[in-house]
Specification:
The chain is an alpha+beta fold. It contains four helices and 13 strands. It has a domain of 165 residues: Nucleoside Triphosphate Pyrophosphohydrolase (Alpha-Beta Complex). The structure holds 2-acetamido-2-deoxy-beta-D-glucopyranose. The site of 2-acetamido-2-deoxy-beta-D-glucopyranose (NAG) has 5 residues, from strand 1. It catalyses: ADP-D-ribose + H2O = D-ribose 5-phosphate + AMP + 2 H(+).
């Protein structure tokens, strides 16, 4: 079930106006070495123009399991030497000093909050001091609870639950503490002309297909995820992101929209399979602000629900299509991990 549903405190959906003007999308253009994967997993919600300035951020998706958003692994991207979208160099944090419990009295991280965040756009908090939110709760419509339990707050500032990053402040992230995203994984079975499931020639298992978007910012295929708006239930974010990015529901004619809406509603009301819920090792993370996500699989078993809707790319997506779920498909590392779990759960080919 998708009962991650935070307390309802509906203050209306606040659109994240993109004062950032593509800022999160340029993150790897500033001299980050190719070996370091410094691309954000989730672009902030953009109302329109996404200026695609760099493609160098796309090296990332092939890296090892170390980039998986697992609570068991040390965060790596969160320590990438060059902070994205800036000239800031993180203080290097060795593996054995990541955990806060390891004493490090000389630890003196760089303080960095991006100027675009300091301007206080609608998606960003104010500086601590003038502002003191209630952490670990839903406060004024903003969900400040962490998916992995209570996080520590020190001197009024939340501490990254996965440890040191070499940067304090919020960097490019709007919220102190957790910044929530959601990843809808919509699947169907691959069938032949007669509607029979196609089995993979090697594994002999049926093949799943999922809806993938090709991101405009870096040209990589990804799950159509996005940021959770303040006051928005995660289940709604999942549905909204999918509708906007994969069906371009914002631009279709009203009659068509009703039909799309009905099918989408039905699918997203079905009990989804929660694939992941927790911390994301994201290059924008700091000691005081970090990404978290919920990935949920919604499966069209009979193939007559969303499977029949024409896919159409929305604002953040260049293309959208059904892609075979297969371990060889190059995808953002954590997304690939999510799909593997989906394939296992559905006893499908991987
Ligand atoms: C960190 O930077 C922010 C803004 O860039 C500033 O308001 C704050 O006082 C700084 N904090 C410290 C501890 O230097």
């Amino acid at each position: 079930m998708v009962h991650l549903l935070l307390r309802r405190n509906w203050i209306g959906r606040i659109r994240l106006a993109l004062t950032l003007a593509g800022l999160p999308f340029t993150v790897c253009s500033s001299g980050v070495g190719p070996a370091i994967s410094c691309t954000p997993s989730y672009p902030f919600r953009a109302t329109k123009t996404i200026t695609s300035t760099s493609t160098s951020c796309c090296k990332l998706y092939t890296t090892s399991v170390r980039t998986m958003p697992s609570s068991a692994t040390l965060h790596v991207k969160s320590r990438c030497p060059q902070y994205p979208g800036s000239k800031i160099k993180r203080l290097p944090v060795p593996d054995d000093k990541v955990d806060w419990s390891q004493k490090w009295p000389q630890y003196n991280p760089v303080n960095h909050t991006d100027p675009a965040v300091l301007k206080k756009p609608v998606w960003a908090d104010a500086e601590i001091g003038v502002f003191s939110p209630k952490f670990n709760t839903v406060d004024a419509g903003v969900d400040r609870t962490g998916f992995e339990g209570t996080y520590k707050v020190e001197n009024g500032k939340p501490l990254n639950p996965h440890g040191r990053t070499g940067v304090t402040g919020r960097g490019l992230l709007g919220r102190w503490g957790p910044n929530h995203a959601a990843d809808p994984i919509v699947t169907r079975w691959k069938v032949d002309a007669k509607g029979a499931k196609i089995l993979h020639s090697v594994s002999k298992r049926p093949i799943l297909q999922f809806v993938a978007i090709k991101r405009k910012d870096c040209g990589e295929w990804a799950i159509p995820g996005g940021m959770v708006d303040p006051g928005e239930q995660v289940s709604l974010t999942l549905q909204r992101e999918f509708s906007e990015e994969a069906l371009n529901s914002l631009s279709v004619v009203p009659a068509e929209r009703a039909k799309i809406h009905e099918r989408i509603n039905k699918l997203f009301k079905s009990p989804g399979f929660q694939v992941y819920k927790g911390y994301v090792d994201d290059p924008r993370n700091t000691d005081n602000a970090w990404m978290e996500t919920v990935a949920v699989n919604f499966h069209d078993e009979s193939g007559n629900s969303v499977s029949e809707l024409p896919l159409q790319a929305g604002d953040d997506a260049g293309q959208v299509k059904w892609v075979d779920v297969d371990s060889s498909f190059a995808l953002y590392a954590s997304h690939s991990h999510f799909l593997e779990l989906v394939a296992k759960e559905r006893k499908a080919h991987w």
